[in-house]
Write a structure and sequence with these properties.
This protein has 112 residues and is mainly alpha-helical. The protein has one domain. 74% of the residues lie in helices and 0% in strands. It has 5 helices and no strands. The two termini are 33 Å apart. The model has no long low-confidence stretch (mean pLDDT 86).
Length: 112
């Protein structure tokens, strides 16, 4: 296992631990109710939805470039949040070029 995967796994374990603690304190309904309790909580919720939407868009493009499907991870993102993206990163096929990098350099500017 590469050092990147070890770091991703550690972040996933930490996130799941915090999520379990938070859920044990207020319950699942309390987690969602808290997202709308104040203007700052609403702002955080909107920011989270935007960020997770961008991550889902990236996962779909990345999975297509690697010949895989991101559908299970995209469907789990609303339920698990960042944990779904972290699991995708741990399980995605290796070796293909990242589509975000491949499209960042115009084809006429690439070295032959």
């Amino acid at each position: 296992m590469s050092w990147k995967k070890i770091v991703l796994f550690a972040v996933l374990v930490d996130f799941v631990t915090v999520a379990a603690w938070g859920t044990s304190q207020v319950g699942v309904v309390g987690l969602f109710a808290g997202m709308f309790e104040s203007p700052s909580a609403i702002l955080g919720t909107v920011d989270l939805v935007i960020a997770l939407g961008l991550i889902c868009t990236w996962m779909i493009r990345d999975a297509r470039a690697r010949g895989a499907s991101a559908l299970p991870y995209v469907l789990l993102t609303p339920l698990l949040g960042s944990a779904a993206a972290l699991v995708y990163l741990l399980r995605r096929p290796e070796g293909a070029v990242d589509p975000m990098i491949a499209t960042a350099v115009p084809s006429h500017a690439r070295a032959s």
